[in-house]
Amino acid sequence: MLSNIKNKKAAVITLHSVCNYGTQLQAYATQEKLKEYFGEVTFINYKRNDTYGVGLLRTFTKGNILKAPIILPTLLCWKFKFGRFQKKYLRLTGETYLKDSDFEHFKDCADVYFVGSDQMWNCGWNKGVIKPYYLHFVPQRKPKYAYASSFGQKQVEERFVEESKDYIQQFNYITVRENSGIDILKKQYGYRNVERILDPTLVMPAEFWRKIAPVSKIKGDYILIYNLQRSAAFDNYAKELEKRTGYKLYRFCTRFDQMIKNGKSLLIPDILEFITLIDNAKLVLTDSFHATAFSMNMNTEPICIYPKEYSGRLSEFLELVQEEKRHINSYEDFDVINRHVNFERVNKILEEERKRVDEILQEIVAEVYQNE
């Protein structure tokens, strides 16, 4: 059966054009995992208008053109570094799709279609329902699956449920990244054929990532800061953490304007350096899901601050690996450095979860094979 399915082509739509480190790495992990089961895996090159060019500039300036000279150097650096990663590591369709109407001329390019991972179905982030993320363009005869997709929230507004319900019902099988996603699908969409699996970056073990990660350039023990939400309290906490541990602060700067914050600046590193910097840190101070996920995967202790919005993905992951104690409830909590991670238990949990992913992919393969 596997030899037959290895002749099959799989196509994936995900957030590959978003200039975010976790997003890029989840796309690569998705591709490499599916390649274990399908002969060819290709990403449908769909770019939302707020992820490139003038649309991206408008997103960051919030319509204030006076801010353009400040943010433009960052966007140019992103275009180069993220574009280089995509060109080298991701297989994209030759056709580019920039808006919904472009899919009216979609070229059917696969035997089976996947959507995911990441927050594909977060209608808050997406400002509504983005139909391509529900595979609305795929021919009816082709099987559709979701691979670790995320709603990014505990509940979806009913107006968005109504708008996307018909698309959801057309999926053969859905896997989501959080248990809250199962609740949403069952209770709000009436969809039952669903199961939770790991984020794709966690499906691939630490050995996989270390093989492609560059050598560390940092000598000595350090705390890595990876902060997505601006916060003076966060920065003050980091400074005090440096004093209490004696570890030097290194700040992973995703933008040029972050250089003014405390810690030695690591200015828009290459995408794979994200792995190296986490792997070699003593602690990772973060409000990011993927920084936390990679920390646990690489056996580096994270200190987690939940963001104000869409924190469920982070809290549910810490609950899964039984390490809720790595979350701090206030910026007065420094005892977290003494609440060590039980990595033996974490590794065991992740390994069992990976086995389940393979079982599900085998079930999908069997279904595709039977429906030939």
List the helices and strands and how they pair.
Elements: H1 2-5, E1 9-13, H2 21-34, E2 40-46, H3 53-61, H4 68-89, E3 92-97, E4 112-115, E5 144-149, H5 158-169, E6 173-176, H6 179-188, E7 194-196, H7 200-203, H8 206-212, E8 222-226, H9 232-245, E9 248-253, E10 264-267, H10 273-279, E11 283-286, H11 289-297, E12 301-304, H12 312-320, H13 343-370
How would you characterize this protein structure?
It is a single chain. This protein is an alpha/beta fold and 372 residues long. Helix content is 40%, strand content 16%. The protein has a 7-stranded parallel beta sheet with strand order 3-2-1-4-5-6-7, sandwiched between helices. The longest helix has 28 residues, at 343-370. It starts with a helix and ends with a helix. The model has no long low-confidence stretch (mean pLDDT 93).
